[in-house]
Amino acid sequence: MREATQICSAEITRRCLLQGATRGIGAATVLGMMASPAMASKIPQSAVAYRATPNAAQHCDNCRLWEPPNACKTVDGTISPQGWCRIYVKA
Ligand code: SF4
Question: What is the domain extent for residue 65?
Fold first, then answer.
C-alpha cells in the first residue's frame, strides 16, 4: 500500500487533506471543521492571489468557477465580477 503522501502528491483532494488532518490534529477537530462544509471546502482569497481587478480579458464573470452575483465555487468570500485570481479557468 502506498503512503498517503505519495497518493496526495499527484492530486490534492479533500480526502488527502482530511487524512493529513486526522493524523495531525485529531478527529474531534476535523469534525468541528466539517460543521460548515461550504466554508471548509473553499480556498482563502490570499492563497490564490485574488484581486478585485481583472487580468486583461480574464475576469471572474467569464471564469468557469464564477457563481453570480458575487461568489466563486472554489474561492472563499465575496468575489467581484471584475476580479481575478491565479486559478482562473476560461468559461
Ligand atoms: S477568477 Fe478565481 S475568484 Fe474569480 S471566479 Fe475564477 S476561480 Fe473564482
Answer: 41-91
Asked if omega into 69 is within 30° of 0 (cis), the reply is: yes
What is the distance between the alpha carbons of residues 11 and 91, in angstroms, rounded to a whole number? Answer: 22
- The residue contributing the CA closest to ligand 1 atom 7 is 88
Regarding the beta carbon of 76 and ligand 1, being less than 6 Å apart is answered no
Residue-level pLDDT at 9: 41
Residue keyed to cell 464573470: 61
Q: Is 59 in the pocket of ligand 1 (CB under 6 A)?
A: no
Structure confidence by residue, pLDDT tens digits, 5-63: 444 344 444 443 334 433 443 334 333 444 455 456 899 999 999 999 999 999 999 99
CA of 13 to the centre of ligand 1 (A): 19
Distance, CA 56 to ligand 1 centroid (Å)?
14
The DSSP output letter for 56 is T
Residue 88 and residue 46 share a domain: yes
